């Protein structure tokens, strides 16, 4: 099934069918919760494992809407998502993570233990889904998302540290002051991949109006001058690449030279 090979009318009908089918399956699952006979419904597996990204997207969007439309289904859906996260098919797990993202846009209270499972998944697509979900949640629900990020910023696994830093990047583009404390805590990071993402994020949160000033002021507190130099190079490079940056590369470089101690 290829979503965008369909006409607009056909796509609309399919989206409706996906939602109604998933809703029916979840309601039927609710009836079995008391007996603890919970398995992933075949209909949900069908859509959650589809090769087409947009089919899977409509599946997790529907699951997110159903979750918030039906308070009585929260427990059942959390069990369902947990089962999906333990499925052998990485697409099913990926769909589960994005469903968590849709839920976490409003409230992470009952789902963060499930995110913890996904953080440690062996498949890169599942971990990338965690990053994507955290980016979205960081914009929509920053307080709870950053509270979760705080738990893992010093995790022993460098892949998890990298995912967490990458996941809070988008919020930093408009609110760099919220992300900068996380970056500074890792100023002596030794892992090359984590170090690279820290430098990348510093560049990404510096180019919008009013952001470079906040970033440079924060960098003055950094003790790791080697890392500081790499960040300066990345910030200038970002201003060169992004023609829509608030400052020209020359102006950004001059501002840094004047204000960075």
Q: Which secondary structure elements does this structure contain, and how are they paired or packed?
A:
Elements: H1 8-30, H2 42-48, H3 53-69, H4 74-85, H5 90-104, H6 112-119, H7 124-140, H8 142-152, H9 158-167, H10 169-174, H11 176-185, H12 192-204, H13 211-219, H14 225-241, H15 249-259
Notes on the protein architecture:
The structure is a single chain. The protein has 261 residues and is mainly alpha-helical. It has two domains: 1-125; 153-261, ARM repeat domains (Serine Threonine Protein Phosphatase 5, Tetratricopeptide repeat, Alpha Horseshoe). Helices cover 71% and strands 0% of the residues. The chain has 15 helices and no strands. The protein has helices spanning 8-30, 42-48, 53-69, 74-85, 90-104, 112-119, 124-140, 142-152, 158-167, 169-174, 176-185, 192-204, 211-219, 225-241, 249-259. Helix 5 (90-104) packs antiparallel against helix 6 and helix 14 (225-241) packs antiparallel against helix 15 (249-259). The longest helix is centred in the N-terminal third of the chain and has 23 residues, at 8-30. The chain is elongated. The mean pLDDT is 94.
């Amino acid at each position: 099934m290829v979503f965008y090979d369909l006409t607009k009318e056909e796509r609309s009908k399919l989206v409706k069918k996906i939602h109604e089918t998933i809703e029916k399956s979840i309601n039927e699952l609710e009836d079995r919760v008391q007996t603890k006979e919970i398995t992933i419904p075949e209909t949900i597996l069908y859509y959650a494992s589809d090769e087409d990204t947009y089919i899977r997207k409509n599946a997790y969007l529907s699951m997110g809407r159903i979750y918030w439309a039906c308070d009585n289904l929260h427990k059942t859906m959390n069990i369902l998502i947990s089962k999906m996260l333990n499925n052998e098919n990485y697409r099913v797990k990926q769909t589960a993570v994005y469903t968590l993202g849709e839920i976490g846009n409003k409230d992470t209270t009952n789902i963060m233990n499930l995110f913890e499972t996904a953080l440690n998944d062996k498949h890169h697509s599942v971990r990338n889904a965690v990053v994507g979900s955290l980016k979205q949640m960081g914009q929509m629900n920053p307080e709870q998302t950053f509270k979760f990020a705080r738990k893992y910023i010093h995790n022993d696994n460098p892949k998890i540290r990298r995912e967490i830093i990458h996941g809070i990047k988008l919020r930093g583009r408009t609110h760099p002051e919220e992300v900068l404390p996380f970056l500074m805590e890792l100023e002596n990071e030794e892992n090359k991949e984590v170090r690279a993402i820290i430098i990348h994020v510093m560049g990404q949160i510096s180019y919008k109006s009013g952001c470079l000033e906040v970033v440079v002021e924060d960098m003055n507190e950094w003790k790791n001058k080697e890392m500081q130099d790499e960040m300066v190079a990345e910030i200038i490079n970002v201003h060169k690449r992004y023609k829509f940056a608030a400052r020209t590369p020359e102006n950004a470089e001059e501002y840094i030279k004047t204000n960075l101690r």
